[in-house]
Amino acid sequence: MQTFGDEKNKVVTKVFQDVFDRYDLMNDLMSLGIHRIWKRMFINYLNPQKNTKLVDVASGTGDIARLFLKKTNLSGSVCCVDENKDMIKISKKKITNKNNIEWYCNNAEKLPFNDNKFDYYTISFGLRNISNINKALDEAFRVLKPGGRLLCLEFSKVKNGVLNNFYQIYSKSIPKIGKIIVGKSEPYEYLINSIKEFYSQEELIKLLEKSNFKNVSCRNLNAGIVAIHSAWKI
Ligand SMILES: C[S@@+](CC[C@H](N)C(=O)[O-])C[C@H]1O[C@@H](n2cnc3c(N)ncnc32)[C@H](O)[C@@H]1O
Predict the structure, then answer these.
(1) Is the CB of 122 within 6 Å of ligand 1?
(2) Do residues 52 and 119 make contact, with C-beta atoms less than 8 angstroms apart?
(3) Top-level class of domain 5-232
(4) Ligand 1 geometric centre to CA of 66 (Å)
(5) CB distance 129 to ligand 1 below 6 Å
(6) Whose CA is nearest to atom 1 of ligand 1?
(7) Nearest ligand 1 atom, CA 109
(8) pLDDT tens digits for the chain (234 residues)?
(9) Is the pTM of this model over 0.70?
């Protein structure tokens, strides 16, 4: 189990404090824009129905919320949860139609909602940053309605040897890009290490099952550079 408690939480808070105003730009540069495609595939895989309720945790600058609202033709509603108020501020600026969306500055390990409230729980590039992942997954299970679905988009383990070698070399350049664009390399060193230390596809399936989720499955994108885990509260 990867929990590093308060120490990890402090590091993560500082990382996003340091990068919030260049977060979107760096995402585009580091992934060569591919994160946008991954996020669209993620929402297409979720396939949200009309008039449904989503909680998007570690919502950052609001990409998943925006795609969800578009996909449900603005009939769905979203609660965005992020522990960083500056990321929330940017999200509020980016999302112009604010009718069906609310923001909460809270930790994923203790969500400010009643049980059985949401049809969907999404977390995109967020789970890796959470100190106590088991607690966050238990919270996800608690706030989902019976029949509700969790979808997680996260960096994972590359399954192709040649691509993995190339990916490892490329990863080493990311702190250097961070230094040029944001003026700091440390947040990006954290990023690379957090990806290395994070669970494999199979390990994350086991964790989801431990939190009582059923029909847990995983879909790799780009040979496992990222993976989408799907899990149901039944
Ligand atoms: C890499 S960003 C991902 C943002 C967005 N979901 C995306 O896909 O672009 C991670 C976000 O998780 C938030 N975060 C980290 N730890 C958290 C926690 N324990 N609870 C809630 N949010 C957290 C950070 O503030 C940051 O906005």
Answers:
(1) no
(2) yes
(3) alpha beta
(4) 16
(5) yes
(6) 125
(7) 19
(8) 444 567 788 888 888 888 888 888 888 888 889 999 999 999 999 999 999 999 999 999 999 999 999 999 999 999 999 999 999 999 999 998 899 999 999 999 999 999 999 999 999 999 999 999 999 999 999 999 999 999 999 999 998 999 999 999 999 999 998 899 888 899 899 999 999 999 999 999 999 999 999 999 999 999 999 999 999 999
(9) yes
Cα torsion angle, 5, 6, 11, 17, sign: positive
Q: How far is the CA of 232 from the centre of ligand 1 (A)?
A: 22
Joined tokens for residue 57: 């945790």
Hey, where are the domains in the chain?
Answer: 5-232
Phi, psi for residue 131 in degrees, rounded to 5:
-65, -50
The 10 Å Cβ neighbour count of residue 143 is 22
**Which of 2, 16, 81, 143 has the most ligand 1 atoms within 8 A of CB, as the residue to mutate?**
16
| 58 touches ligand 1 (CB under 6 Å) | yes
Instruction: Say how far apart CA 201 and CA 225 lie, in whole Å.
Output: 11
The rounded distance, in Å, linking the Cα atoms of 40 and 63 is: 9
91 pocket-lining for ligand 1 (C-beta < 6 Å): no
Q: What is the DSSP letter of 117?
A: -
